[in-house]
Amino acid sequence: MMDEYAKYLEEKKAKPKGLSTFKLKVIGDVLMFLSAASMTLVPRFLGAPSTDDMGVLTVVVLCEAISWVAIPIYAWLLYMGFDRTRSWFKYGMRLFILALVCEVPYDMVTFGPDHLFDFRSQNPVFGLVVALVVMVLLDAVEDLKTGVRVTLSVLLVIIGLLWDVLLRVGQSQAILNIGSLTLGFCVIYYYLHRRENTMMITAATLGAVSGIAPGFGVAFLHYRNGELGYRHFWTPWVFYAVYPAILLACACMAL
């Protein structure tokens, strides 16, 4: 009995502390659920938000704002995927297909079940696609002369931001463009990943001036342990299905 307990203590001690990639993804998915729920489940069970019922309106706004904590988390997961993937093209295609799959349920959740296609806002996964393309292009110009590299890098980031703004990627509460903020975090991670403290401080500052909530997401990243944390080889693939499943479930609840 004592041997088993000693073995348990050794395994517990050997287990890395902090947040693994698996745990970060779970946290991100829970936060994304809050965003979808704020526009579907909350109005369904508590009533439509309006200035006549500040309680419901407050709940909706809080749920949406809290979901912004996920932005720097997903930006970091995207950067890690970019840094570790063997084929950025395949990685990008998976994200692009995911974005297409998410678009209809996202529009139904955001604008109502009658809006199967609505171009007032595109789902945040498109922001991940834009950020990935920008990072790939930044990597492509890395070996150019300093002046040319800096000029092209600034131009590429500006173009990426324009795409996010023009497509209204993840436009939230008319005050936050999730796509642009995602790209901002990715650029910080791309250039400062070798300087942990500088990276965290810069990212936290960006989050703080972007509605405060994203800054808390950076705090989660501070406790990451660098481990994947997957128990099964198929676990990463399951996460691709979680966000569209959340959107679809919430869209159905809104019918």
UniProtKB/TrEMBL annotation:
<feature type="transmembrane region" description="Helical">
    <location>
        <begin position="233"/>
        <end position="254"/>
    </location>
</feature>
<feature type="transmembrane region" description="Helical">
    <location>
        <begin position="91"/>
        <end position="112"/>
    </location>
</feature>
<feature type="transmembrane region" description="Helical">
    <location>
        <begin position="21"/>
        <end position="42"/>
    </location>
</feature>
<keyword id="KW-0812">Transmembrane</keyword>
<feature type="transmembrane region" description="Helical">
    <location>
        <begin position="148"/>
        <end position="167"/>
    </location>
</feature>
<keyword id="KW-0472">Membrane</keyword>
<feature type="transmembrane region" description="Helical">
    <location>
        <begin position="124"/>
        <end position="141"/>
    </location>
</feature>
<feature type="transmembrane region" description="Helical">
    <location>
        <begin position="54"/>
        <end position="79"/>
    </location>
</feature>
<keyword id="KW-1133">Transmembrane helix</keyword>
<feature type="transmembrane region" description="Helical">
    <location>
        <begin position="173"/>
        <end position="192"/>
    </location>
</feature>
<feature type="transmembrane region" description="Helical">
    <location>
        <begin position="199"/>
        <end position="221"/>
    </location>
</feature>
<protein>
    <submittedName>
        <fullName>ABC transporter permease</fullName>
    </submittedName>
</protein>
